[in-house]
From TrEMBL:
It comes from the Bacteria. The keyword Transferase applies. Keywords: Methyltransferase, Transferase. It comes from Aeromicrobium camelliae. This is Class I SAM-dependent methyltransferase.
Amino acid sequence: MTSGFDELIETGESADVSGWDFSWLDGRATEERPPWGYAGLLARRLTSATASLDIQTGGGEFLAEAASFPPVAVATESWPPNIARATRLLHPRGVAVVADPDEPPLPFGDEAFDLVTSRHPATIWWEEIARVLRHGGTYFAQHVGPASVFELIEFFLGPQPEARRGRHPDDESAAAETAGMEIVDLRTATLRIEIHDVAAVVYLLRKVIWWVPGFTVERYRDRLRDLHELIQSSGPFIAHSTRHLIEARRP
């Protein structure tokens, strides 16, 4: 068991975690998809927009799936490896990638876009979204919901009762309305995750760095070994992600 553990740890540590593509996890972890099909819904909205902005685009992999883009199409990203990856993917499609620290203000003028989108943004600045939207423009996004993957997070950090309320769709809707937006659509989903080995855990915690802040294999090796032994004896580690689809309009 020890040699298997060490090999899995090395595999997870050596994996490339740049970009926002999780295909490396194929065969190691699975996650249910939300029922609404955000990719298809987003693609349809892009066809009718005249100027679009995708916030925190990651490596651009998801946005690049769209068949077409409006005459003006921009994406922002803060992490340098992702900026480079998104540039390679999106510039040939006519989408400009702008380096942005994910803090106000957005580097665009007032009422610059009729469509602002985001998939799993780490931060949401509603006042800035409202500012860069034209009147009648739409924010259309899929957000991570409250207590998402907390079974895994709390395995490493212990109970996090205060953090469980974060990202609640009711709170986000209220914040959007405070910024002057109208909520048009709000849907929620809870989705099953199965993690089949500890290499997947190392990969995820290196990639999604806010789950277990300051994660390193050295720091959490004992807990990783506990999780490895749990998977070996009981089968896949089960967690649940939460997602919500939110559409808000600037009146």
